[in-house]
Amino acid sequence: MNEIREVIEGKAALLETGDAKAVLSHYADTYVEYTLAPPLRQPGDARDPAALAAWMATFQTPPHREVTQLEITTDGDVAFATSLDSLTATPRGATEGFTLWFRVTLGLRRIDGRWLVTHEHESVPFEMDGSFRASVTLRP
Amino acid sequence: MNEIREVIEGKAALLETGDAKAVLSHYADTYVEYTLAPPLRQPGDARDPAALAAWMATFQTPPHREVTQLEITTDGDVAFATSLDSLTATPRGATEGFTLWFRVTLGLRRIDGRWLVTHEHESVPFEMDGSFRASVTLRP
User: Fold this and answer.
1) Extended strands (E) in B76-125
2) How many CA atoms lie within 13 Å of A104's alpha carbon, on the beta-carbon side?
3) What's the CA gap between A98 and B57, in Å, rounded?
């Protein structure tokens, strides 16, 4: 359980260092990825460090990620974890930063003795008032 | 694995019968729920059959749910499952129905010999073009 918590909190902390390879070292070679942005499911089987680095470079400094309300359920070599996370960043060219809160579910497997993320699902809900607006201003 | 698949496909099929209690019999007494609509996390510890029945009653007939690309990872008494699901329904008073595709992650635990859902995360992504629109027209 502690080991899994360290993976999850560790990779969140690594984001701020801007080291894309180090972040992705916590992911399995193939995994199922549901991101905040479309498509419904990422087509790639492995995350590309260059793509993650390029995304981080759209901000003045790499985003700060906070993991809250982390709950881990595990047995044997399988685990899933839920949390409410926030990302705080200032896009390049913007005068003000933002903090976005979103839901996170991770699926993990212990492979060759190491816990790796094999599934990641990140999302915000959307307003059911007919506007179909993503709910990007919610806080836990 | 087969037992877990039956729970997931069974509760999807049950939705169409309109039997809220039967659907919810596949859920543990307490679970973590991230729904399509706000808030970020449902505050209730247990889903209310009356609330589910009331939601189903907003449609001309109970929604039809389809589960696709189901992948299950399990060890011992813990499992997580990913899928892309669709909900097809016609709201009361509407002349046309809709089909909404969304991502689903389930966490399950075997409790007293029965697999039960202890976590459900349903979402659509949102457009990162500055519009913050929920992506409700995607298809797998």
Assistant:
1) 78-89, 98-111, 114-123
2) 23
3) 39
In this structure, what are the phi and psi dihedrals at residue B96, rounded to the nearest 5 degrees?
Answer: -125, 150
CA distances from A139 to B37, B64, B101 (A): 14, 32, 26
User: CA A103, CA B36: separation in Å to the nearest integer?
Assistant: 11
Task: Determine how many CB atoms are found less than 10 A away from the CB of residue A78.
Answer: 21
Distance from C-alpha of A105 to C-alpha of A71, rounded to nearest angstrom: 10
CA angle, A90 as apex, A117 and B136 as ends, to 5°? 60
Q: Please report, to the nearest 10 degrees, the dihedral formed by the alpha carbons of residues A89, A95, A96, A97 taken in order.
A: 0
Which of A41, A126, A138 is the best residue to mutate to test the B interface, defined by the most B CB atoms within 10 Å of its own CB? A126
Model confidence over A50-76: pLDDT tens digits?
989 999 999 999 999 999 999 999 999
Residue of A114, A23, A83, A11 whose CA lies nearest to B105: A83
Cα torsion angle, B25, B28, B29, B31, sign: negative
In angstroms, the CA A123 to CA A135 distance is 10
Mean pLDDT of chain A: 95
Write out the H or E segment, with its range, that includes residue B52: helix B49-56
Tokens matching residue B80: 């997580």
- Three-class DSSP category at B95: coil
Residue pointed to by tokens 């995994």: A31
Contact residues, chain B, for A127 at CB < 8 Å: 37-38, 134
Rounded to two decimals, the pTM is 0.96
**How many cross-chain Cβ pairs, A to B, lie less than 8 Å apart?**
149
